[in-house]
Amino acid sequence: MAKNKKGIIIDAVVLLDKPKGISSNAILQKVKRLFNAQKAGHTGSLDPIATGILPICLGQATKLSQFLLNANKRYTFYAQLGATSTTGDIEGEITSINKPLDFSKEQIIQVLSEFTGEISQIPPMYSALKKDGQPLYKLARENITIERQPRNITIFEINFIEYKNNILVCDVLCSKGTYIRTLAEDIAKKLGSGAYLKALQRTEFAHYKLKDAYQFSQLEELKDNNNLMSCLSKTEDMIINFPSLEISNDELREIKFGRTITKDIPDYKWLKLFCANQFIGIAQSTDNIVQPKRLFI
């Protein structure tokens, strides 16, 4: 780590358990200030009502965040059945539906089974998708509704947890681009009712687990005890599934000059490069030629 007038240069990842009632960007700025980090960014934003794991990338780690954008995610959602919301969650205008809600566990599980695999989903108006450069949620706030094209998403798992007091609780493992609000609404429609999200928690993001994440208050406590850096995860752990390649100091010198090196290895779309066990960047390999793509030294 080094210091300059803009803050400390830190290259690492903070696994944050995002609290409810704050935007992902707002909590990102709080974490950045807490670490006095020069640069910070997050991967996969969460709505203000949502809680759960939010990887915060510091320094060079921000350059690898793109590799997590397509990652699968796991959520626990709490859907209030028997009512709808203009936003699909508790922040919207709520309208009750006067229909019986005495669904059995077996009925619900049967309906859930219809939402596994690749399904089509229409994105909600209250989303960050854009139309002619304008976010849809801004149009929705002006009571403007536009046609949205269905998108294919994948629900790898959807598990029933509980149905009590008209609140359905489920665990979902899904692909990038899945709107859990819309999923809950569509499940309720199949049951002959309506729904909106009362709460949402992200429990997994790629290979990261919520149990390994820190609440912001815990980070503050670590800082008070001069132990804040102990919470950091290594930058290279973001791309844990990339194969690793150890290179020599001579090969490192070549790579620093932007040259390729020759190694008797298979073709890889992406490689993690190490020298003397230190992570130095990522590369690609084709026909035994290793081409550096991004160096972190």
UniProtKB/TrEMBL annotation:
Instruction: List the Gene Ontology MF annotations in alphabetical order.
Output: lyase activity; RNA binding; tRNA pseudouridine(55) synthase activity
Organism lineage string: unclassified sequences, metagenomes, ecological metagenomes
| Positions of the tRNA pseudouridine synthase II TruB subfamily 1 C-terminal domain | 243-296
Could you state one GO biological process linked to this protein?
A: tRNA modification
For this protein, the Enzyme Commission number is 5.4.99.25
One Pfam family named in its UniProt record:
TruB_N
UniProt key word Repressor = no
Keyword terms of this UniProt record = Isomerase, Lyase, tRNA processing
Q: What is this protein called?
A: tRNA pseudouridine(55) synthase
Q: Give start and end of each Pseudouridine synthase II N-terminal domain.
A: 32-180
Q: Where is the tRNA pseudouridylate synthase B C-terminal domain?
A: 181-222
| Organism, as annotated | hydrothermal vent metagenome
